[in-house]
Structures are given as structure tokens and as C-alpha cells.
Amino acid sequence: MTINEILDAIEDMLEKSWGLPISGGKSVVDTNKISDLINEIRLNMPSEIKHAKMIVNDRTQIIEEARKEAETIIANAELRAKKILNEQDIVKAAQEKANEILTDAHSQSREIRNSASEFVDDMLKHTEEVFSSGLTQTRETRQKFRKMSMKRK
Predict the structure, then answer these.
(1) From CA 37, how far away is CA 17, in angstroms rounded?
(2) Distance between the two ends of the chain, CA-based, in angstroms?
(3) Most Cβ neighbours (<10 Å): which of 27, 70, 92, 133?
(4) Considering Cα of 23, then 27, then 29, then 35, what sign does the dihedral take?
(5) What pLDDT is stored for residue 153 in this prediction?
(6) Cα(122)–Cα(107) distance, rounded to whole angstroms?
(7) Where are the beta strands (DSSP E) in the chain?
(8) pTM
């Protein structure tokens, strides 16, 4: 007997059942026969329905596994994002430090150039003073020499 035939038999039994007075439409049926027919339905249930039930049961497990995998992917993505942010912070700190070092180097370079310029200027001034003093002495010596030469004549 197919499931449709069993369902038709149940429907016939319900239609042929006699109604109870003052019961609001309730009928008397042979519960043993109905129970047997229900068991027959269960036994003749197509494999697709059984398979569908298994799929429905597995669905929860599949959804749970997918949720866990999604949570893992999200957690990994968050960790990677944090790592990238940390790397960006490190790069930013390194750039700031590099800029600071360059600024200090430029400052020191200016100081060294200024000091070198002052040193050269001082040396040239000292050289000028030495030459000037030497020139003055040379002139004085020459004048003395001329005076002595003139006296001898």
C-alpha cells in the first residue's frame, strides 16, 4: 500500500465514522486501525522524505560549523587588521624619528658651518694682523735703513 492509499483509507474511516451528539463535531473512530495505518505510513515513507529529514537534522550542524568558521575568519581578519595598524604605527613612529634625526642633523650641520666660518674668519683676521704687523715692521725697518743710508752719504 502506498502512502496516498493509506491516507485515503484514513480519510474514508473519518468520513464513515459516526458523530457523537453534543460533542462539537467529534467522531468515534477505531484508534487501533488508525494507529496501524500511521505505522504503515512511517514504514512506506519515501526515502526522499527520510533523506530530507536527515538534511534538516544536518542543517543545524552545517549552520553551526559555518558560523564557527565565519567567527574564525572574522577573528583572523581582526588580528590581521590590528597587526597592520601596529605596523603602520611602527612605520609612523620610525618616520617621525627619522624626521627628528634629520632635523637634528640639519641643525648640527648649520652649527658646524657657522663654527667653521667663525674659525676661518678668526684665522684670516689673525693672519691679517700678523701680516699687518709684519708690514708695519718692514716699513719701519726700511725707514730706519733709509735714514742710515742717508746719513752715510
Answers:
(1) 16
(2) 167
(3) 27
(4) negative
(5) 64
(6) 22
(7) 18-19, 27-28
(8) 0.39
Span 119-138, pLDDT tens digits: 999 999 999 999 999 999 99
Burial of 152 per CB tally in 10 Å (0-12, 13-18, 19+) = exposed
pLDDT tens digits for 24-77?
778 888 889 888 888 888 777 777 777 778 888 888 888 999 999 999 999 999
CB burial of residue 40 (10 Å; 0-12, 13-18, 19+)? middle
Q: Which residue has the cell 658646524?
A: 112
Total Cβ atoms within 10 A of residue 60? 9
Residue 17's φ and ψ, nearest 5 degrees, are -70, 150
